[in-house]
Write a structure and sequence with these properties.
Number of helices: 23
Helix content: 55-70%
Strand order of the largest sheet: 1-2
Number of strands: 2
Structural class: mainly alpha
Radius of gyration: 25 Å
Oligomer: single chain
Largest sheet: 2 strands, antiparallel
Shape: globular
Strand content: under 5%
């Protein structure tokens, strides 16, 4: 039941006619805090920066676990010169181009190991992402909140990456990568949800894109750091990425406020009001609009970490939305995580290949940033998944390396844009009480697609259709499930399941 007592005193510094009090959290953030509050935006920007460290840990294995170049040491050894790999060659007849500690493969002599062993650290990382997403997904909606979940996720990710530096063997290394993935699983979700809930409707879409831009910058920083680090130990690359992430985790505790929207929904009204006051007090000392009553349907039904998931499965409309977004996410994730791995099969330079793919994310984020307010969610998702699938299949049909590379970049660019739109779409589809859990499940579907991608890439070295062809077919088919979802462009987001149901019923009866 809503408390009829005033929450804050009505204040009108100009003596002008009083405006109607805000009646929703969106109204509160817009009217009371203000649309251009500096602290409000700075906090959202800082929260979004977590995506940078997320990207670094996601793609770091491309460089640390790469097989280094090698050369024959003898001038007359025909067998060595004709060998496609050093595996099976006599010791002393060949040598690595770089020091042995430059890569995991050379340091632990994995050149003759099977693909499952060599790929174990990367597979363990994605397995950790899946496990963490399933076990931690609802904590941000239930007991921990957005801020604490983001802090614990970043701290676990950074500490496990730091411990990776002292890995004695492949098995310990893989275990630490699993732990890193487990912690990382909720970094992007918590960051995205918290940053968008700290701002009003006016800035929500733009702040969402800031996270994607930060992810791109983190992706772009990797080939630069790896190139500078070439010849040095692969362990140094983990230090370069984990130490800044650990410092960022500590700063989160002191600089960031908890989501007032989550506090209100969880019934912690006094804490929410204090948060709103602290943000508004920095807005040139002026409260743009006061309110006497804030009508928020408090959600007291989510009392344990699995209640949010249970509600999503029980409500037919929520289950339908979750299934459709997860299936679409699976296809998008397969191309998004698979394309950077598959670029190596084109025979291009590793550093340049990764850079080109990272650069493809930047215009994708920019296009989403400037057009998200105008884009119809369903139509844009269908368009980008179809284009990505078509150009992925085109990579199988063309023979020119240049045109294949161009088609691959277009396919990856379209998948990146679909990735961005899907996450924003998911924010708008699910109410506050289960939003973090729902988006976590969507992100796990994206990661699940990434789990299958390395296997297809390995098979694609023999037959390109099994990589590029399957990528295109899967993302194209999975994208079709978007047609079953409602359009959300320009619509305010809801806080409880009941509010969302009322809005859905009102939309369905509208002629």
């Amino acid at each position: 039941m809503v408390d009829p007592a005033p929450l804050l005193p009505h204040y009108s510094p100009s003596g002008a006619a009083k405006k109607p009090p805000p009646t929703s959290v969106d109204d509160t953030l817009e009217s009371y805090v203000g649309g251009n509050c500096v602290l409000q935006l700075l906090q959202a920007f800082f929260v979004s920066f977590a995506w940078c460290f997320d990207a670094q840990q996601t793609f770091i294995n491309v460089f640390t676990d790469a097989e280094p170049a090698w050369h024959c040491t003898g001038t007359d050894d025909a067998a060595c010169a004709a060998a496609p790999s050093p595996c099976g060659l006599a010791p002393g007849s060949w040598a690595w181009d770089l020091p042995m500690h430059a890569s995991v493969v050379s340091e632990w002599s994995l050149q003759c190991s099977g693909s499952a062993v060599v790929g174990l650290p990367a597979s363990a990382y994605f397995a950790g992402c899946l496990a963490g997403g399933l076990l931690l997904a609802t904590l941000a909606d239930s007991v921990l909140g957005r801020k604490n979940m983001l802090f614990l996720s970043c701290l676990t990710m950074s500490l496990s990456a730091t411990l990776t530096v002292v890995s004695p063997n492949l098995w310990a290394y893989s275990a630490l990568r699993f732990l890193c993935g487990f912690g990382r699983a909720t970094v992007g979700t918590s960051s995205l949800v918290l940053s968008t809930e700290l701002v009003g409707k006016r800035w929500r879409e733009k702040i969402s894109i800031v996270g994607f831009v930060c992810f791109t910058m983190g992706f772009l920083s990797l080939p630069a750091m790896a190139y500078i680090n070439r010849g040095s130990s692969w362990r140094a690359l983990y230090l370069w990425t984990s130490v800044p992430s650990a410092c960022y985790s500590v700063l989160l505790v002191f600089l960031i406020k908890e989501s007032p929207r989550w506090l209100l929904v969880r019934g912690r009204r006094d804490e929410a009001i204090q948060t709103l006051k602290s943000i508004a007090s920095t807005n040139d000392g002026v409260i743009n609009s006061s309110f006497s009553k804030l009508i928020v349907a408090e959600d007291t039904g989510i009392v344990d970490i699995f209640s949010a998931m249970k509600i999503l499965l029980q409500k037919k409309w929520a289950f339908r939305r979750l299934v459709a977004t997860m299936i679409s996410g699976f296809g998008i994730g397969m191309v998004y995580y698979g394309m950077p791995l598959n670029v190596g099969n084109l025979g291009s330079n590793l550093y340049l290949s990764v850079t080109f793919n990272a650069l493809a994310e930047l215009p994708s984020s920019m296009i989403t940033l400037f057009l998200i307010g105008k884009l119809n969610r369903r139509c844009s998702m269908l368009t980008f998944t179809t284009v990505s699938g078509a150009f992925s299949v085109l990579c199988v049909l063309v023979t020119s390396k240049l045109w294949r590379m161009a088609a691959e970049v277009v396919s990856f660019f379209s998948a990146c844009t679909a990735f961005n739109v899907l996450l924003i779409y998911s924010i708008e589809l699910f109410p506050t009480c289960v939003r973090n859990s729902a988006i976590s499940m969507v992100r796990q579907a994206l990661v699940l697609g990434g789990v299958f991608a390395p296997v297809l890439v390995a098979e694609g070295r023999k037959r390109s259709f099994l990589s590029f062809g399957v990528f295109g077919f899967v993302i194209g088919c999975c994208g079709l499930f978007i047609v079953s979802l409602p359009e959300t462009r320009g619509r305010s987001i809801c806080d409880t399941m009941e509010e969302e149901e009322v809005k859905q019923n009102a939309t369905s009866v509208t002629p």
